[in-house]
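Quick log. Single chain, no ligands specified.
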Amino acid sequence: MINIALPKGRLGEKVYKLLSDIGYKCDEYSKDSRKLIFSDKKGEVSYFWVKPSDVAVYVELGAADIGVAGKDILDEYCPDVYELADLKMGRCSMCVAALEDFKDDLSSPLRVATKFVHTAEKYYNEMGRDIELIKLNGSIELAPVLGISDVIVDIVETGTTLKENNLKVIGRISDISARLIANKSSYKFKNGGVLSICEELRKAVENCD
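-> predicted structure:
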């Protein structure tokens, strides 16, 4: 049996539909159910639903053989897993944003508000820019508006929230999308099953483009 960790929410639902369409349907699954674990009658796959940021943890620790996690999570936490495929879903960008009238004062550390601390630190280290990190968990856009940071590092999808708060993108760090990941031991000992799902998912994604 292949154990699959999917993120709760729209992304997980889209991935499950793809898996269902390529032959890994689970008859007992219902998106209206409060159950978190579902297994198919043939005993080929088992699904469980977790918080998106926790998928990589379940895969790394071996509770799941494979899972779907955002590239933002993989870049931020660097889990010890194999990244097998880009599922081309949940596309967005990791960006630096600031107020419309922002001007960088190179004489002092740049105050950066973000929940992606490692990502921001790596980005600015590569630039050689001194920064002061401010860890926030939500409503990151408020930080420069209220004057507690100079810039933010966050995920940008449409840019609407930025515009509505008088912010603009001033730097693009990376492109983000959902990735299929695998536990390293599972990749070795369940190689046939893992690779079969991976290849079929890749073909399904290509056909959706």
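The chain has a mean pLDDT of 93.
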